[in-house]
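Sequence dictates fold. Next comes a concrete instance:
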Amino acid sequence: MASLKDILTRRPVAATVRLTIPAGGARPGPPVGPAIGQYKVNLMAFCKDFNARTQKYKPDAPIAATVTVFKDNTFELSVRSPAVSWYLKKAAGIESGSGWAGHAMASMITLKHVYEIAKVKQGDPNCQYMSLEAICKSIIGTAKSMGIKVEKELD
């Protein structure tokens, strides 16, 4: 429960914008500019902040960002790592999953790949309280639904 002080000091929110931007690729042009520029946010400050936070990822990695814009034209940025499906496709070396998952196999990966993906995803706000084993099981389920088989070791 929020205290009275927290309620009185909260800044009024103008909008919450969800964007998917390539890592390190925030520019004032589309899609970023039209999405948050309409709320009179300093686009250059947003781009610098986003690019600084995402420099540890590969340049083509799609990053999910949530921008909370306040009435005083300031913003709060929340950045998550790329989706599990993107990591699985990169690890398997495929462009897309199987169109007939469960029947046709698109590719194979090892448990080591799953573990490495889980280590990255453990830092996400949604997964920070999950055990590494639970994250691995979730990744294996996602791989199965994409038609990617998980093996102990590849021959």
Q: What stands out?
A: Residues 84-151 form a domain with the Arc Repressor Mutant, subunit A fold (CATH 1.10.10.250). The mean pLDDT is 89. The first strand starts at residue 13 and ends at 22. The chain is about 35% helix and 20% strand.
